């Protein structure tokens, strides 16, 4: 069998018009064809997008879609299209330039509003929280004293609050604090580089209690429209908790306005990443946006601070109560349990604890800065639980017993003071911050073991007296930051950098508690002396400022109106000149920033994540 078409043909026998190809020719043709196809594929898949879509980039997309026949576009029609587009853009630009700045701004604003509206429609915002029974809210208004002279003093305090608030409203609105001399906003590292309106949040409940309702509404509006915690700022967990969460929760309980509760919960969520440490002891600072935490560079051996991680309990228990989310309660109970397991040198709690290793840092103990509110919150956890949290009460009693043994002494001049314990040595120096302890001892007297109520009330009175002396021995009648009981010194500051007064509340706080428990008129008298001195030496046209030297008759200002002046100092003064039915202590517990939270009758409630309370 032959296959002539496939056989090689001799030249002689080559037909003039051959209809078939030779095998080698076919092979070459096939090769060319496959090379061409590969090229086409390569071009389509591997060339950059812009070259593939060049025609669309030229603005022909609409045209192509219209015509569905890209290949019939001539070069001329393409040029016409480009020219027309350019002319249109030029025309639009000219029209824009003809418009006034205001018109343009109005247009931009309308556009912005539209975008915001669209966003809102897409995101209906946070879901409302589950309803919980509102604790009984008693004695939140009025409290007008029957005596006209006391009422006059109270009115003066309200006027001081107005001046502080109005100045901040005018010169620092939305900033964290105010510079009353420079008349502009101010902030410190505790708030990171944020503008969270700390003074507004801190002041709200004071405004409410004083009956300054217009101002309160103004603050509420700002919070509704501006307070946003999604900011890239590294804040102090402790400060944000006591000022913002405490302030928002108190404003919620007093006014019943949901927005405060929602904001408090939103912020608390942002603080939770701070607890992601090997031990569960939180970092001192957390970035609100990234959730990354770290500790203060100055703290001993990378430690967290006792007064910071130990001052979360009140607010976190309320957060669990209000949201039904056990996480908050569990975080603070974990801290309590961890501390309970640790050895305490001489029964004392050191101020520093490393959150990585779970070991104490330097063995320093203080009832002033770095330690103070840890002890306060043990007592207040018990009070806030309607005295059912006996574990907290016992921990408080043991801690105070050790403090009395090692830190509290009488000076040669007979003044009782609380010193600072440093590696087994007692420094005979007391800070202004430690003056709050007079009020704490009085508040904890009832319920103390071995019927020592009288003893603790007396101790409170002695501390109040010592702190009053620290004021009375200055030129301005305002207390220094720290004062000594050494080498013949009695309640006076020695170092220049301890002579300042920054509008702190602790001494007045103690006067108020002592007044409530004893009704001894000297506490109102001392409170009035302090109020007059503040009005005389700290008041300026743009608000109130701290002073750098309370021993100088010609003091210089530090030019800061601290947010705690509105939250605490003025609130305690106002309460001191009000009757006791305003914010009764049986129903309210004040957090360490003077934000009142209601007693939770935990005997009748089980918090999610907890065992039923035992009496
Ligand atoms: C306040 O922020 C709080 O009272 C805190 O506990 C320590 N002290 C400042 C005001 O002095």
TrEMBL record:
Its main location: membrane. Disulfide bonds join 435-467. It is a single-pass type II membrane protein. Its EC number is 3.2.1.-. It is found in: Endomembrane system. Gene3D superfamilies: 1.50.10.10. Signal peptide: none annotated. GO terms for biological process: carbohydrate metabolic process. GO terms for cellular component: endoplasmic reticulum; extracellular exosome; Golgi membrane. It comes from the Eukaryota. Involved in the maturation of Asn-linked oligosaccharides. Progressively trim alpha-1,2-linked mannose residues from Man(9)GlcNAc(2) to produce Man(5)GlcNAc(2). This is alpha-1,2-Mannosidase. The lineage of its organism: Eukaryota, Metazoa, Chordata, Craniata, Vertebrata. The gene is MAN1A2.
């Amino acid at each position: 069998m032959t296959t002539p078409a496939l056989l090689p043909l001799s030249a002689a026998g080559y037909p003039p018009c051959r209809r078939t190809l030779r095998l080698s020719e076919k092979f070459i043709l096939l090769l060319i064809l496959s090379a061409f196809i590969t090229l086409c594929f390569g071009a389509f898949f591997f060339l950059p997008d812009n070259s593939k879509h060049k025609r669309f980039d030229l603005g022909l997309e609409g045209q192509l879609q219209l015509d569905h026949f890209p290949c019939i576009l001539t070069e001329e029609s393409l040029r016409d299209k480009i020219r027309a587009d350019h002319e249109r853009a030029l025309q639009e630009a000219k029209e824009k330039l003809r418009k006034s700045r205001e018109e343009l701004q109005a247009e931009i604003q309308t556009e912005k509003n539209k975008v915001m509206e669209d966003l809102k429609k897409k995101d209906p915002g946070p879901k409302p929280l589950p309803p919980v029974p509102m604790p009984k809210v008693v004695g939140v208004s009025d409290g007008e004293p029957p005596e006209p002279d006391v009422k006059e003093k109270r009115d003066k305090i309200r006027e001081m609050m107005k001046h502080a608030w109005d100045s901040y409203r005018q010169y620092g609105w939305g900033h964290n604090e105010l510079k009353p001399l420079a008349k502009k906003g101010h902030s410190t590292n505790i708030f990171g580089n944020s503008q969270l309106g700390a003074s507004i949040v801190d002041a709200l409940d004071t405004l409410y209690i004083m009956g300054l309702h217009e101002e309160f509404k103004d603050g509420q509006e700002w919070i509704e429209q501006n307070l946003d915690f999604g900011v890239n700022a590294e804040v102090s967990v402790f400060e944000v908790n006591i000022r913002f969460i405490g302030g928002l929760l108190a404003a919620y309980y007093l006014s019943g306005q949901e927005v405060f509760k929602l904001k408090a919960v939103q912020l608390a969520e942002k603080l939770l990443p701070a607890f992601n440490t090997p031990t569960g002891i939180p970092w001192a600072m957390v970035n609100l946006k990234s959730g990354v935490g770290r500790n203060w560079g100055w703290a001993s051996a990378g430690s967290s601070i006792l007064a910071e991680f130990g001052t979360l309990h009140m607010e976190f228990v309320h957060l669990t109560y209000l949201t039904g989310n056990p996480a908050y309660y569990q975080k603070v109970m974990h801290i309590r349990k961890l501390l309970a397991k640790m050895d305490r040198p001489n029964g004392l709690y050191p101020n520093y604890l490393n959150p990585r290793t779970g070991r104490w840092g330097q063995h320093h103990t203080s009832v002033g800065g770095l330690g103070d509110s840890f002890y306060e919150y043990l007592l207040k956890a018990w009070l806030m639980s309607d005295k059912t949290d006996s574990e907290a009460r016992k921990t408080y009693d043991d801690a105070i017993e050790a403090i009395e043994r090692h830190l509290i002494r009488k000076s040669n001049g007979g003044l009782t003071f609380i010193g600072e314990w440093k590696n087994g040595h007692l420094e005979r120096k007391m800070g202004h911050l430690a003056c709050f302890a007079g009020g704490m001892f009085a508040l904890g007297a009832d319920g103390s073991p071995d019927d020592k109520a009288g003893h603790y009330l007396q101790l409170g009175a002695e501390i109040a007296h010592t702190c009053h002396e620290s004021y009375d021995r200055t030129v301005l009648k305002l207390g220094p930051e720290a004062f000594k009981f050494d080498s013949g010194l009695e309640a006076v500051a020695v170092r220049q950098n301890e002579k300042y007064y920054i509008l702190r509340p602790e001494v007045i706080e103690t006067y108020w508690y002592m007044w409530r428990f004893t009704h001894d008129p000297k506490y109102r008298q001392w409170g009035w002396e302090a109020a007059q001195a503040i009005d005389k030496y700290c008041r300026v046209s743009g608000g109130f400022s701290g002073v750098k030297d309370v021993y100088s008759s010609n003091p210089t200002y530090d030019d800061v109106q601290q947010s705690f002046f509105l939250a605490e100092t003025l609130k305690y003064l106002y309460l001191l000149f009000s009757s006791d039915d305003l914010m009764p202590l049986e129903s309210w517990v004040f957090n360490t920033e003077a934000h009142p939270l209601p007693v939770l009758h935990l005997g009748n409630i089980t918090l999610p994540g907890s065992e039923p309370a035992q009496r």
